[in-house]
Design brief:
The structure holds 2 protein chains of 2 kinds. By secondary structure, chain A is of the alpha/beta class. In chain A, 48% of the residues lie in helices and 14% in strands. Chain B has helices spanning 19-25, 37-53, 84-89, 105-116, 120-150, 172-180; strands at 8-11, 57-68, 72-75, 80-82, 95-102, 154-156, 188-189, 195-196, 200-209. In chain B, the strands form 2 sheets. In chain B, strands 1, 2, 3, 4, 5, 6 and 9 form a 7-stranded antiparallel beta sheet that branches. In chain B, strands 7-8 form a two-stranded antiparallel sheet.
Chain lengths: 803, 211
C-alpha cells in the first residue's frame, strides 16, 4: 500500500481497526507467562480464528500479533535471535487471515525500556532494535505499520524513524495518555501529534489506558492541529483488579455507544484495545453505519514542541522570545565549561532565561577546540529532558544540526538555513526528514544583499525549494538580517521591510536584535526602539537576552499596542505579579559613620568591601580591639537575634558570618600586634565522627565559632575516636564538637566520649546532626546538644565561660 | 533468578521541587523572614545553580512479597526485611517497589568547594536544593510508576519508607543497594551504609489494589 492510498482510504470513510488480541488468545488456550508471539507461531489457527472474527465484525485493518516481537522483549524469553523470522511468520499468518479483505498492519510495541534522554537505552540502539523488527514484518508482507501503546515520545520517534528509514509504507503511531492527559514521560496529545506528524507519521492517535469517553477528549484536543488522520483505540473502560487479574467491565454495547462521540471529536480510524473483543468491533460497525467521516478544515498554524510542551508562534500571537544566551561567543564561563565537556553553565543559562520569559531556547555550542557535534547532542539531550521549553538548534554545520534533530524528542526550530546553494541543498532535506521548522537566512552565494529588494528573491528561492519537499509557509521563519546602523544607517529600515514582506506573505519572521546597535553607546535604547518598530511590522519571534528588562517590557507593551496580547492579559499579568520595587535605603552608606557602615556590612552580609571599611576605621584611629568588641561582635550578635526570631534564615546567618570572617582576617595582623588575645581564646576540636561523611553543618559551626573568638581545630570528616581524643589532648581543648548525620554513625560519638573519659580528659562535649537530640546527648554523656550552628555557638560560649 | 533484567532506569529525571520546601529547609518562615533584594537575588542564583548541577537518575525494581509477619516481610529473592513499621505499611500489598534516586556527584563536589573557599552561604543553598531535588526525583518516580500500575488497577501506597527511619535499620541499605545495582548509577556505599554521593536516596513503597 502506498501512503496516498492510505490517505484516500481515511478520507473515504471511518476506518475500523481491530480489538484486543492477547485476551482472545488466552480464551483459546494460550497459557500465562509465556511468549505470546512464539505461542501464536506454533498455534496459527488460534490467531486466524480471532482475526477472522474481527474481519467478520467489520475491521478494515488488522494488527499483526507482533506487539512484543522486538529483540529486547523476545530476549526475556530467550528468543533474541528469532526477531526477523518470527515477525515474518506472524505477518504471513495475519495476511492469511485477512485473505485480501483487510489490510495488515505490522504491529510495533515498546521495548519496555526508556530511551535516552529519559532512560538508559541509547537512541540509535532503539532505532536498530526497531529496524530489525521492521525488516521481519516487511518480509512477511505487511501493508502498513502501526506503532502503538507508546508511553514515551522518544521511543515512538525511534520506531517511526526505523520504519521511515526502512520503507515507504504508511505508518500510524498511537500513544497512551493517562487520565491526566499526558504520557508516562509527560507528553500531551497536541504535542505528540505535532511532533509525530512533523516526523512523517501518516496517522496519529491514542490507544489503551483510558476508556472511550476520555479518549474522545484527547482526540478533540488534537483535531484542530491534525494534518493527518487521527486514530482512537480505547480500552473497554478503566482497569480493575479482580482476584489478581486485571479486568475491564465496559460492555460491548456501552463501548459501541461512544463511536459517534469519537467520530464527532475527530477520530478517522477507530478500534478497541484492552478488554475489547470482536463483538465490540461489531458494535462500532453497527453504530458507525449511518455516520460518515466528519470533514475538517484545519487552520494553518506554526508550532515547535519539546517532549512536554507546544509553543505556537504567529502574527496574531504575542511575539515569541527566543533566549539567545546559550552561545559561547564572548562568555568565558560557558567556554571553560564546554571545553571540559560540562553542561552546568548551559543548564543555568537555560533556567535563568526561562524564568525571565524565554519561550524557546537557542542552543549554540560552537567554539574552537571542542567536538561541536558531540557537545550539541549532549546539550540537546540534557536540556530536552530537563526543561519544557522547546529548543532552537543553532549551528553553522549541517552535520551538527542533523545529529541534534535526530535525538531531539520534539519538533525543533533550526537556526538557520541560508540561500547558499550548497548549504540549502544539504539542509533542506534534513529539515524535511525530521519535520523541523527553520529560520531562513537571506544570505546567498554572493553574500548578504544590503536591501530588502535584494533579499526577497533569495528568500523566495529557498521557499520554492522547501515547498517541493513538503514544507508550507507556516514552517518557515524569515530572518530579517539585522545589520549595524552605525556602519550603515539605512540598514535598519531595510531589515524592517523584510519583516513586513514576510508578514504580508503569511511567513513568520525573526530578528537577532542586538547587532543593530553595535558601536553605539547605551545600546539598549536602540535595540528597544528597533524591537517595537519590528513588532509593528509583524515580527513573530525575537532573539534576545530575556534578562534585559527594557526589551521584555517593550515587547509586552508592543504586543498590547498591536492587539496581539488580547485584552492586554499578558501585560497585566506580568506587571501585577512583579514585586513592588524595594524601598530605597533611607541613608546612603557613604553618609553613615564608618563604624555604622561596618555594622551594616556584617548585618547585611556585604563581604565585598568590608576589608576597605576596616582599613578606613583603622585609619580613622579606631583600635582593632574596639572594632571587634564594639562593632563586629555586636553586629554578629544582632544577626544571631534576627536568626532566632526567624527574621533571618540560614543563608543570611552564614553570609553575615562570612563578612565577619573577612573583617577578622583583615584585622588579624593588627590584633596579634596589639595583644596576645589569641592565646587566651578557648580551643574547640571539631570532627565528623568515624564512618560519617557529612560535614557541611560542622563546617558552618566552625565558621561561626571562629567569628566568636574560638580557636577551632577542625579535624574534618570520618575521623577516628583516637585521633579526636589525641587532638583534644594536644591542643588543650576545652570543648569538643562532634557531628554525625546517620543512625549508623551517631553511636560512634559515644565511643569518642568514653575514650576521652578513659584517658582522663575533662573537656566538654557538644554534639549535633540530624539523627541526634538532647536525649541522645544525655544518654552518651555529652554536655550539650546543638540543633543549629547559632545554638552551637551559644552553647560553646556557655560551656567554655566565654562571654 | 537474576534480578537485573527487572531493573528500570530513568535518566535526566525532570524533578521540580517546590521552592517553598527548599526555603523551609533553610529556615525561611513566610511573613517572618525578611529578604533584601540582594539576599533574594543571591538566593535565586544559588537555587538556579543548584538545579543546574544536579544530574538526576533513578532506578526501580518491582518485587513479590512472598511471606509476611508482624515483624517484617520476605521478598522473592529471599531477603527478609525486619521492620514492623514497614510490615504495617505493606499490610495490603503483595508486591512492592524498591526505588532509588541520585542527583550525582557534581553538586556535592561543588558544595564542598564552596564551603572550603569560604562561601558556606552558597553551600547551604546548594545543599538544600540538592536534598529537595533528590526527594523530588522519588516523587516523580512514584507518579511515573503509578501511571504504569494504574493500568493494572493497582497503585503504590501513599507513603514510602526508607532505611534509617523508624525501626528499619540503615544497614538494609546494603542489600537494597546491591539489588538495585546502584553502582551502575555511579553511587557507592560506605561501610556504615551511607550512600555516596550524599544526595542519593533509597525508598520502598507497597503496591496495592485501587479502592
Amino acid at each position: 500500500m502506498i501512503r496516498e492510498e492510505f490517505k484516500a482510504l481515511c478520507n473515504k470513510k471511518v476506518v475500523l481497526l481491530d480489538g484486543a488480541t492477547g485476551t482472545e488468545l488466552q480464551k483459546r488456550g494460550m497459557p500465562a507467562g509465556i511468549c505470546p508471539e512464539k505461542w501464536v507461531a506454533a498455534h496459527p489457527e488460534a490467531l486466524i480464528d480471532i482475526q477472522s472474527q474481527y474481519l467478520s465484525a467489520g475491521s478494515d485493518i488488522i494488527y499483526t500479533c507482533t506487539f512484543g516481537a522486538n529483540r529486547q522483549k523476545l530476549a526475556e524469553f530467550g528468543l533474541r535471535g528469532e526477531v526477523c523470522e518470527l515477525n515474518a511468520q506472524l505477518a504471513r499468518i495475519s495476511r492469511q487471515a485477512a485473505g485480501g479483505k483487510a489490510l495488515v498492519a505490522g504491529d510495533i510495541g515498546s521495548t519496555g525500556l526508556l530511551v535516552e534522554p529519559f532512560g538508559s537505552l541509547p537512541f540509535e540502539e532503539a532505532v536498530a532494535i526497531y529496524k530489525e523488527q521492521v525488516a521481519g514484518l516487511l518480509q512477511g508482507g505487511v501493508d502498513l505499520f502501526v506503532i502503538e501503546t507508546m508511553i514515551d515520545i522518544q521511543e515512538a520517534r525511534a520506531a517511526l524513524i526505523a520504519v521511515k528509514e526502512s520503507c515507504d509504507l504508511p505508518v500510524m503511531v498511537t500513544m497512551t495518555f493517562d487520565e491526566d492527559g499526558r504520557t508516562l514521560t509527560g507528553t500531551d496529545p497536541v504535542t505528540a501529534l505535532i511532533t509525530l506528524q512533523s516526523l512523517g507519521a501518516d496517522a496519529v492517535g491514542c490507544n489503551c489506558s483510558t476508556g472511550p469517553d476520555l479518549m474522545a477528549d484527547f482526540i478533540a484536543k488534537m483535531k484542530p492541529y491534525a494534518k493527518v488522520p487521527l486514530v482512537a483505540k480505547p480500552n473497554a473502560g478503566l482497569p480493575k483488579l479482580v482476584e489478581g487479574r486485571t479486568v475491564f467491565d465496559m460492555s460491548a454495547e456501552t463501548f459501541g455507544g461512544f463511536a459517534a462521540r469519537l467520530i464527532e471529536a475527530g477520530a478517522d480510524l477507530i478500534g478497541g484495545c484492552c478488554g475489547t473483543a470482536p463483538e465490540y468491533i461489531k458494535e462500532l460497525k453497527l453504530r458507525t453505519a449511518g455516520i460518515g467521516r466528519k470533514e475538517w478544515y484545519p487552520l494553518p498554524f506554526s508550532a515547535v514542541t519539546s517532549a512536554r510542551k507546544t509553543v505556537f508562534v504567529g502574527a496574531d500571537l504575542p511575539v515569541t522570545v527566543v533566549g539567545e544566551r546559550i552561545n559561547p561567543t564572548g562568555k568565558k564561563a560557558l567556554q571553560a565549561e564546554l571545553a571540559e565537556g560540562k553542561l552546568g553553565e548551559v543548564r543555568r543559562l537555560a533556567l535563568a532565561q526561562i524564568e525571565a520569559g524565554a519561550s524557546i531556547l537557542d542552543v549554540n555550542v560552537g567554539m574552537g577546540g571542542i567536538d561541536e557535534q558531540a557537545m550539541m547532542v549532549k546539550a540537546i539531550s540534557v536540556l530536552s529532558a530537563q526543561v519544557e521549553t522547546p529548543l532552537c538548534i543553532d549551528s553553522a554545520s549541517p552535520e551538527v544540526i542533523e545529529a541534534a534533530l535526530r535525538i531531539y524528542p520534539g519538533r525543533a526550530l533550526i537556526n538557520s538555513i541560508s540561500a547558499e546553494t550548497g548549504k540549502m541543498k544539504k539542509l533542506l532535506p534534513i529539515a524535511a526528514k525530521y519535520g523541523a521548522m527553520f529560520v531562513l537566512l537571506p544570505l546567498g552565494d554572493e553574500g548578504i544583499p544590503s536591501t530588502a529588494e535584494g533579499r526577497i528573491p533569495l528568500i523566495q528561492r529557498v521557499i520554492d525549494e522547501a515547498e517541493l519537499l513538503g514544507f508550507t509557509v507556516q514552517d518557515i521563519v524569515i530572518d530579517g538580517l539585522v545589520m549595524t546602523v552605525s556602519a550603515e544607517q539605512e540598514a535598519a529600515m531595510e531589515t524592517l521591510q523584510v519583516v513586513e514582506w514576510a508578514s504580508c506573505h503569511g511567513l513568520n519572521s525573526i530578528l537577532g536584535l542586538s547587532n543593530v546597535s553595535f558601536g553605539l553607546p547605551e545600546r539598549i535604547w536602540v535595540n528597544g526602539a528597533f524591537l517595537a518598530m519590528a513588532v509593528a511590522k509583524g515580527l513573530t519571534l525575537a532573539i534576545v537576552n530575556p534578562s534585559a528588562e527594557v526589551l521584555m517590557h517593550l515587547k509586552l507593551a508592543s504586543d498590547v499596542l498591536t492587539g496581539r496580547d488580547q485584552n492586554s492579559n499578558e501585560y497585566i499579568r506580568y506587571f501585577t505579579s512583579k514585586k513592588n520595587p524595594v524601598e530605597k535605603q533611607e541613608t546612603k552608606s557613604t553618609e553613615m559613620g564608618i563604624t555604622h557602615q561596618i555594622h551594616r556590612a556584617v548585618v547585611t552580609g556585604q563581604t565585598e568591601g568590608v576589608a576597605e571599611l576596616i582599613e578606613k576605621a583603622l585609619t580613622e584611629g579606631f583600635a582593632p580591639q574596639t572594632i571587634v568588641h564594639e562593632y563586629l561582635i555586636p553586629a554578629i550578635n544582632y544577626v544571631g537575634e534576627l536568626f532566632e526570631k526567624k527574621q533571618y534564615f540560614l543563608p543570611q546567618l552564614i553570609q553575615s558570618a562570612e563578612t565577619m570572617k573577612a573583617a577578622f582576617e583583615h584585622l588579624e595582623p593588627y590584633l596579634q600586634k596589639e595583644t596576645a588575645t589569641a592565646n587566651d581564646a578557648p580551643t574547640i576540636v571539631l570532627a565528623t565522627v568515624k564512618g560519617d561523611i557529612h560535614d557541611i553543618g560542622k563546617n558552618i559551626v566552625g565558621l561561626m565559632l571562629r567569628n566568636h573568638g574560638f580557636i577551632v581545630c577542625d579535624l574534618g570528616k570520618d575521623v577516628d575516636a583516637e585521633v579526636i581524643v589525641e587532638n583534644a589532648i594536644q591542643t588543650g581543648a576545652v570543648l569538643v564538637g562532634l557531628s554525625a548525620l546517620m543512625t549508623t554513625t551517631m553511636i560512634e560519638m559515644k565511643k569518642v566520649i568514653e575514650l576521652a573519659r578513659a584517658k582522663g580528659l575533662t573537656c566538654k562535649f557538644i554534639i549535633g546532626g540530624a539523627a541526634v537530640d538532647q536525649a541522645f546527648a544525655d544518654a552518651i554523656g555529652a554536655d550539650g546538644y546543638a540543633a543549629d550552628a547559632h545554638y552551637a555557638v551559644k552553647l560553646a560560649k556557655q560551656l567554655s565561660g566565654l562571654k | 533468578m537474576d534480578q537485573s533484567s527487572k531493573l528500570n532506569y530513568l535518566a535526566n529525571i525532570p524533578a521540580d521541587p517546590d521552592k517553598k520546601l527548599i526555603l523551609l529547609r533553610l529556615g525561611y518562615r513566610s511573613n517572618i523572614t525578611v529578604l533584601s533584594e540582594a539576599d533574594q537575588s543571591r538566593l535565586d542564583e544559588g537555587i538556579r545553580l543548584g538545579f543546574s548541577l544536579c544530574h538526576n537518575q533513578g532506578v526501580w525494581i518491582r518485587m513479590e512479597i512472598v511471606r509476611r509477619s508482624r515483624e517484617g516481610i520476605e521478598l522473592e529473592n529471599g531477603l527478609f526485611i525486619k521492620s514492623s513499621n514497614l510490615a504495617r505499611l505493606l499490610e495490603h500489598s503483595d508486591q512492592m517497589v524498591i526505588m532509588a534516586a541520585t542527583v550525582g556527584p557534581e553538586v556535592t563536589d561543588r558544595i564542598a568547594t564552596e564551603v572550603a573557599q569560604g562561601k558556606a552561604s552558597l553551600g547551604v543553598v546548594l545543599d538544600a536544593v540538592a536534598s529537595e531535588v533528590a526527594d523530588a526525583c522519588l516523587d516523580y518516580m512514584v507518579l511515573f510508576i503509578n501511571k504504569m500500575l494504574r493500568k493494572e488497577g493497582r497503585l503504590l501506597t501513599k507513603h514510602r519508607y526508607s532505611p534509617g527511619y523508624g525501626d528499619l535499620p540503615l544497614e538494609y541499605q546494603k542489600d537494597l543497594f546491591a539489588l538495585l545495582q546502584l553502582d551502575k548509577l555511579g553511587v557507592a556505599i560506605t561501610e556504615r551504609c551511607l550512600l555516596v554521593p550524599e544526595k542519593s536516596v533509597i525508598a520502598i513503597s507497597g503496591i496495592e489494589r485501587i479502592g
